[in-house]
Structures are given as C-alpha cells and as structure tokens.
Amino acid sequence: MTTEETFQRPPAEIRYADELTRLGEDDRGGRPPGWALSLEAARAFIVGDERRGIRRKFVGDPSLIDRALVSLATSRGLLLVGEPGTAKSLLSELIAAAVSGTSTLTIQGGAATTDDQIKYSWNYALLVSEGPSPRSLVPAPLLKGMAEGKIVRFEEITRCPLEVQDSLLSPLSERVLAIPELNGADGMVFARQGFNVIATANTRDRGVNDMSAALKRRFNFETVFPIADFATELDLVEAEARALLEASGVTVPPRRDVLEVLVATFRELRAGTNADGGPADRLSTVMSTAETVSVAHAVGLRGWFLRGEPGTAADIVACLAGTAAKDNADDLARLRRYLEQQVPRRRGDQWRALHDARHLLPG
Ligand SMILES: Nc1ncnc2c1ncn2[C@@H]1O[C@H](COP(=O)(O)OP(=O)(O)O)[C@@H](O)[C@H]1O
Ligand SMILES: [Mg+2]
C-alpha cells in the first residue's frame, strides 16, 4: 500500500512528489540560495504547466504567485490575507513544498498558542537529569526552519495573542533566535539560507489591523481573492469533487448539471445577489469555494452510498442546512427564502429539482 492510500491527506510534497522531482531535474533557472527550485519552476508547480504535465493546483492570478515567491526570496516574510476558504492555506502549503521540499513546519495559530509551540521547548526528563543542553532542547517549527533553512508556515497568525506574534520579530529582522538557557554558540541559532515565514490571516478574524506595526513591517501582504469567474469556479469544484469522491470509493463522477446549480447557489448566497445581479439574501455563514467543494463531496457521497447513483439537487438541499445555516436561525430563514423565491425563477431540470426539494430543510 502506498502512502497515498494510507493517509487521508498527505502533504503536498508527498502528493505531488513525482512532479517536484521532475521539475527539479529539468530546472535550468537560477535558484535563490537555499531554494529547492527556481522561481519559474515553483510557479509552474503551483499554477500548473500542461506541456510538462504539471497539474494546476491553485486557480488565480499567476502574478500573485510571482509576487509571493519574490517576497520569500527577500528578507521579508509573506502574509496571505483574505476571506476564509480562498485557498490561503493551500497556497502556503504549495509554496513551502516547492521552495523547501517540505510543508510540514507549520504553526497553527490560536488563542492558546504559546512561544513553546513556535520556538522550542524542553524534554523535561533530560532537563532534570542533565540541565539545559542541545540534547534536552525540543525544537518547534520556527527553530527547525531557521536551522535547516526552510520555509515555516504560520497559519491564522492573527488569532494568536499579540506578544506571541511578536516572537517572530527578531527571527524575521535579525534572522537569529536566542536560546538564553544555553551557553556559548548553542545559545544563538542563526537562520540558514532558505528560511522565511509564510503567514495566513482571515479577514473574518480579529484581523491584521491588530498586528503590531513592527511586525507588519516585516511582512509583504498579499490578498487572496475568491474566484471571480463562474466557469472557472465550476471547473475547480468539479475537479476537486471528482478527486475527493474517487478517494472516498465512489465510482461515479459528480453530475455537471448538479454542480452547476450548486456553484451558482453558493455564489449567489455568498454575494447576496440573484441571477440577474439584483439584491438577494446574503448568508452570514462563510460560503467559500472550499465550502462548495466540501458540499459537492457530501452530495456525491449521499447519492452513492444511499442510492448507488450520482448526487442530485435534492442532496444539495439536504446538505445545505448543516453547512450553510449551521446553528444560525436567520441564515436558515434566508436559505429558505432563497429556495422559495429565487430558485423558481431559474430554468432547467436541476433548478426545478432544487425547488421541489425545499421541504428537506429542517424546521
Ligand atoms: N483559488 C483556488 N484554487 C484552488 N483551490 C481553491 C481555490 N479557492 C478555494 N479552493 C478550494 O479550497 C480549498 C482550500 O481552502 P483553504 O486553503 O483551507 O482556504 P483558506 O486557508 O483560505 O481558508 C482547496 O482545497 C480547494 O478545494
Ligand atoms: Mg486556512
């Protein structure tokens, strides 16, 4: 059994190991010091290159990728900002895999994130028996990334307490991390070439406004936008849903006409506009592309495991209550209004089926 069959979601460097190897072998471009690939090859890995058989993994403006990669080759970190579900985490994973060959030096930011989880902690048994020493030191992702010259990912950095965020200041500006408990040369870890930080932040959280001015200055900001074009989003949702369903043991692909209705519904409820561009209800729940993909997956699972066929528009309604309305009664009412008032104005069998299934919403 290969790793791909064993793990639910292997990191990008394992999922796309063959692509990375190939890109590395053919890579004639100059590489920034410490990088596994040139900028050109890293970009191809992320946005795809049909000619070389490299899959497109991130859909969006290739110039965003260029700017992001250039930032990382400078002495500033990269901060990806945007709405939830716009593939900020995916992008940081892909960039880290391309630039460093590993995307797993990752810090997950949260209210309870501590310095230990970012820099280092101690093996207490060894600490007690022999005192602080390089042996009793347990490096966390930041220290490892600095020592090995790799990209460190800091997810949802703005969820961390400010003083914890600021522990990035001297690693980013002086490129050194002090370990005061250790003496001499061991007490200073200097970053090797290739080290840098990619952080992500959601605009729905406390936000980047609260970040200290000092830390903001150490990052280049890049905004990741939701996919603007309907057909592009539909293609992405179809490709992702197909792959997820296959991995879940579903042998029929999702129906394109069902996905069309699903993507249109999510886009309208996300934007608060109807098919004619007029005003309609906007849900307060996040209706991102990432959510659309996960509903498309669930719809396919329902169809297959409940009835042995592809998912239908009725399956969409059955899945919507749990994803789009969650525990929010107002959103449930908005969703019902959408199904009752907007959906009947659309033409097509799947729209009719969506309307007919409105009674599947709870309440
Ligand atoms: N522009 C995009 N390119 C590729 N996948 C996208 C894009 N936007 C959304 N997705 C979907 O969303 C998933 C990633 O979401 P994630 O990285 O967790 O978002 P975020 O970190 O912004 O909340 C992808 O696996 C893919 O299914
Ligand atoms: Mg994320």
Automatic annotation (TrEMBL):
Signal peptide: none annotated. Residues 74-229 form the AAA+ ATPase domain. GO terms for molecular function: ATP binding; ATP hydrolysis activity. It comes from the Bacteria. InterPro entries: AAA+_ATPase, ATPase_dyneun-rel_AAA, CbbQ/NirQ/NorQ/GpvN, P-loop_NTPase. This is AAA+ ATPase domain-containing protein. It comes from Actinoallomurus iriomotensis. The gene is yehL.
